[in-house]
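Exercise 3.2. Students should predict the tertiary structure of the chain below and write it as structure tokens, then compare their answer with the key that follows.

Predict this chain's 3D structure.
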Amino acid sequence: MRLFAILSAAVSLCFSPALAQTLAITNAKVMTAGEAGELESATILIENGRFTAVGADVRIPADARMVDMNGKVITPGLIVSSTTLGAVEINDRANANDIDASSSTLSAGADIQYAINPNSTLIPVARRGGVARAIVTPGLEAKTGGAAAFGGQAALISTAANGDAISQPQVAMTLNLLGSDQGRAAVFPQLKAMLEDASSFAENPSPERVSSFKAAKWTQADLQGLVPVMRAEIPLYVAAERASDIRAFLKIAAPYNLRIVFVGAAEAWSVADEIAAAGASVVLDPYENLPQSFNAVLASSQNAVRLHEAGVPVLIVPPRAGHDARLIRYRAGVAVAAGLPKDAALVAITSGPARMLGLDNYGEIAPGKVADMAIWSGDPFEPLSGLDALYIDGVLQPLEDRQTALRDKYRAKPAGK
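Answer key:
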């Protein structure tokens, strides 16, 4: 409670022009998610929204504002690698569910940044779970009817209470392998032709050439959206569960040296060496470890462990719905219980997603990085540990949400009133 009071008193200062003043966080156990590993009794310095120093022997400026953490555990702010957070409020029609554009003429040209609602009631809930950033991925569950189609361009968002919700637009492209009802015998040849079109257009992205490509009903926005994918400037998220689907996609994508990220990937452990050889990453939910469909008959609780042992970058996610983004640390804890090393589990929900996107300034507590950090009462992978505070861009965030507001309103109400 003393820590909460100290941090609460500091909120007004954090939102003021005094932000430029150095903030010194002292006497903390720091899990950096970087090369420095875990640091005991460490000090963190923050200035202008960035970490400027971290370590046990940091010199604190005389005019710094100091907060004693009294042995608390500090991690980077958590990053959800694939979610609908900010684009879906409830599973209904437009204005409540904006996560895909499958009914439009656009596929790869769809851009989720325009669907993000910073006033979503789900964002404060995610923030209370220690989530500082999230990658919103459109179209990964969209049904595309009679033809394969890309889902659209993903965005990295911030859960901060103030400021721009979009941290970085167009950070990745998505593709749902099984979105079409054609069947695999038609889908994979069509995807092969689509990649050939996209690769050729990327070599000379002239608008006059769009009509010459016939593998799909391309618009200029679609082909233009695929240019950074084919140039390996951004990753391609591919939703796939079955090992044979993963192997088939790796084969047709091999000529293009794409940055591939498989999402779901229940059977990925059985082709881990092939995924590692292709330099691909895997986004998975450790709870999805039962053979609940014919696409996941090899599902295993060892999925994350086997992939990690094979050298595949593993990113851990909660259920895809934005409502569940706050569960991410519990999912990482499940992976740890199954045998994933704790440091790898932390990377999987912090610096790992940032590295996958090529946005190395996020997800790590180190000098020069964006000052996102979560302060925990204990081990963040233990369910009984709680979040004491969350900083985003070096600013202390409020932890109230709609649920806590309703709780506080009615808890104090006299009986019968």
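Discussion points: Confidence is low (pLDDT under 50) at residues 8-18. The chain is about 25% helix and 25% strand.
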